[in-house]
């Protein structure tokens, strides 16, 4: 069907010719010509067009029949598709089959000239068969959806999305700043809002916040409308049959609900959550922005306190609140399942020489009996379980709340690290002695920087491994810089050693010319390099650096 509305607008506002209109809209010149002539002869319609009119309505007024029906509309009683649309969206469990049957009965009841469509038909208006009825209804929806107000059905839907505004989360130990992303869910009927801050938006956390939303609302809606984020949707090319994320689809099956992703770049399909996000961002988000947050729990406490006040606050010019409407709606939601759906991440890892396994950028201790052995990790959003390859549970940990966190049980560690592992204080100190006295001091400081010595082994290894790229001379001078500026951390050395090596020149890098020098315990004299120049060059780094210990 031609885009009648825009053809008329561009014809009479831009004065485009029939040829130009045909090229722009991909139609034949004769087709455009015939339509414009018919429009000009139509006494029911003129330019400017009535506000909100659709191509469907224009065709009805200009031609007097349904588009593409070849004048069949004069023979058939036309359904009131706007009324059908309202019934489908306002009444729970309504179906097109029921409405078509009602349409048939209404047609048979009408006085009209008799006809014989089938032998079983009696006198009455002629009606569309079910397949035609559905086809025409779908066409009507496509034409009119963007301009229709869709009323919310009680207990039918939950819409979810991320807020555009993020907040800063500061690590107390390292000073590292990460982002807090806010998840938002809303029940369109009551406009009851749930929100939660997330330090990670990966699938486990996504499943977790969706579980929390259902618990907060006290039940499960029939439909969950989501954005096309990667946590929910893999592909959504045709909207009708999107490819859902496997875990999110299983979550929906577990809760006996249906995932309905919004149409790409069509925010109207999830207008309630878009509106809720706008309310939060224009409201108390400004207050939260002024605070410094050192834990996700602290942020969510503040968020939920303000959210509770918002949900209990009366709507403007109304004597009821979101909470009041939710009290009505929650009884129409499906019951929560007896057990929450649990997302499980699974991977195999090897217990390192520090008696820990690394998972999702955090470190979890494992009993010394499993040193250098492979183990199986199964993690939810809250818990990290570590199993032997035989399936026996070794230890269960809470999931780390930030990157680089160490979770260590002293009972997992041997009385003497030397007896159990090649990694120990003596090993790293001996390696540092081959570089120089400043490197030894740095290693000794790092070894004492954590509650458990084993938590520092990877840091020591990281410092000493710089001699693979840089010379021992560069590492020794960089360690002196760290000591002089009182920034004895792996991160400072990592950020400074390149500048130190560049200042030294060729001798600062582990090249073939320096290979023999690096084999020994050569330590450059303190007068051989201009330390003041190195300090000056790295002053900005030193000023910005936060002591990670």
Relevant terms:
549 residues; alpha+beta; Nucleotidyltransferase, domain 5; OB fold (Dihydrolipoamide Acetyltransferase, E2P); 4 domains; four-stranded antiparallel beta sheet; 22 helices
Any overview of this molecule?
This protein is an alpha+beta fold and 549 residues long. The chain folds into four domains: 4-147, no CATH class; 157-332, Nucleotidyltransferase, domain 5, CATH 3.30.420.10; 345-417, OB fold (Dihydrolipoamide Acetyltransferase, E2P) (Beta Barrel), CATH 2.40.50; 423-544, no CATH class. The protein contains 22 helices and 14 strands. It has helices spanning 4-13, 18-25, 29-41, 55-63, 81-90, 96-109, 130-144, 203-217, 246-255, 271-282, 285-289, 296-312, 322-329, 417-420, 425-433, 437-447, 457-464, 472-484, 490-504, 515-519, 531-537, 539-544, and strands at residues 157-170, 177-187, 192-198, 223-226, 233-235, 243-244, 258-261, 345-350, 356-359, 362-365, 374-379, 383-387, 393-398, 406-407. The strands form four sheets. Strands 3-2-1-4-7 form a five-stranded mixed beta sheet, with helices on both faces. β1 and β2 (177-187) form a beta hairpin. α2 (18-25) crosses α3 (29-41). The longest helix has 17 residues, at 296-312. The model is unreliable at 112-122 and 521-531 (pLDDT under 50).
């Amino acid at each position: 069907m031609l885009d009648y509305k825009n053809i008329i607008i561009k014809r009479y506002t831009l004065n485009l010719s029939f040829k130009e209109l045909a090229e722009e809209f991909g139609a034949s010149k004769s087709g455009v010509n015939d339509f414009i002539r018919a429009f000009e002869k139509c006494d029911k319609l003129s330019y400017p067009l009535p506000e909100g009119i659709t191509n469907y309505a224009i065709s009805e007024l200009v031609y007097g029949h349904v588009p593409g029906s070849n004048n069949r509309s004069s023979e058939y009683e036309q359904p009131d598709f706007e009324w059908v649309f309202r019934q489908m969206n306002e009444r729970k469990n309504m179906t097109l089959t029921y409405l078509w049957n009602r349409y048939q009965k209404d047609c048979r009841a009408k006085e009209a000239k008799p006809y014989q469509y089938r032998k079983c038909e009696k006198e009455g208006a002629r009606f569309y068969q079910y397949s035609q009825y559905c086809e025409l209804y779908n066409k009507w929806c496509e034409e009119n959806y963007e301009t229709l107000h869709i009323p919310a059905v009680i207990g039918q839907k939950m819409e979810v999305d991320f807020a555009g505004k993020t907040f800063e989360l500061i690590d107390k130990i390292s000073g590292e700043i990460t982002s807090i992303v806010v998840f938002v869910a809303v029940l369109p009927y009551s406009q009851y809002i749930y929100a939660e801050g997330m330090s990670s938006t990966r699938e486990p956390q996504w499943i977790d916040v969706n579980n929390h939303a259902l618990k907060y609302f006290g039940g499960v809606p029939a439909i969950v409308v989501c954005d096309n984020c990667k946590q929910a949707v893999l592909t959504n090319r045709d909207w009708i049959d999107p490819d859902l994320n496997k875990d999110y689809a299983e979550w929906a099956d577990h809760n006996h609900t249906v995932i309905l992703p919004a149409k790409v770049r069509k925010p109207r399909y999830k207008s309630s959550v878009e509106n809720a996000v706008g309310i939060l961002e224009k409201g108390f988000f400004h207050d939260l922005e002024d605070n410094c947050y050192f834990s996700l729990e602290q942020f969510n406490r503040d968020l939920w306190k303000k959210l509770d006040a918002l949900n209990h606050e009366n709507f403007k010019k109304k004597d009821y609140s979101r909470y009041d409407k939710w009290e009505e709606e929650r009884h129409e939601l499906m019951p929560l399942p007896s057990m929450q759906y649990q997302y499980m991440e699974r991977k195999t890892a090897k217990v390192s020489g520090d008696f820990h396994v690394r998972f999702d950028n955090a470190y979890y201790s494992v009993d010394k009996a499993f040193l250098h052995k492979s183990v199986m990790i199964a993690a939810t959003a809250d818990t990290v379980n570590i199993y032997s390859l035989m399936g026996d549970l070794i230890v269960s940990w809470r999931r780390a709340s930030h990157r680089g966190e160490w979770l260590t049980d002293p009972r997992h560690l041997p009385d003497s690290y030397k007896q159990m592992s090649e990694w120990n204080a003596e090993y790293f100190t001996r390696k540092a002695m081959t570089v120089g006295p400043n490197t030894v001091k740095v290693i000794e400081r790092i070894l004492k920087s954590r509650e458990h010595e084993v938590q520092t082994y990877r840091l020591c290894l990281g410092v000493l491994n710089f001699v693979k790229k840089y010379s021992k001379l560069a590492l020794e001078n960089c360690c002196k810089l760290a000591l002089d500026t009182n920034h004895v951390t792996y991160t400072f050395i990592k950020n400074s050693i390149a500048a130190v090596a560049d200042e030294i020149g060729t001798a600062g890098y582990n090249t073939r010319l320096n290979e023999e020098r690096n084999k020994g315990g050569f330590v450059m004299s303190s007068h051989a390099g201009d330390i003041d120049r190195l300090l000056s060059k790295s002053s900005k780094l030193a000023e910005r650096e936060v002591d990670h210990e």
